[in-house]
Specification:
Elements lengths: L5 H10 L16 H6 L13 H13 L1 H9 L14
Length: 87
């Protein structure tokens, strides 16, 4: 069965709207994946998800053309709260 990351990306966008956005993605802070993975099984939005499922969703999100385009533009990277966290 193929993995469908879209529902998980929807959850990421819902849980962290200042950071994850399908239409206008922001470059993510280096290491943000580990912060999100630490929430697997703990955060109410990700209570039944495994680290592997979240890792795949983040990988899918960051490989999208629109995200790569935002990354190539340069500028700050953003943390889960939408605050600048490096370049």
């Amino acid at each position: 069965m193929a993995f469908d990351a879209n529902p998980l990306i929807d959850r990421l966008c819902e849980a962290f709207p200042a950071c994850f956005n399908r239409l206008a993605p922001k470059p993510l802070q280096i290491g943000i994946g580990e912060k999100v993975l630490a929430l697997a099984g703990i955060h109410p939005t990700f209570a039944e998800l495994t680290r592997t499922q979240l890792r795949r969703a983040i990988k899918f999100y960051t490989r999208r053309f629109v995200y790569r385009k935002a990354l190539a533009t340069g500028g700050p990277r953003y943390d889960l709260d939408g605050q600048p966290a490096g370049e």
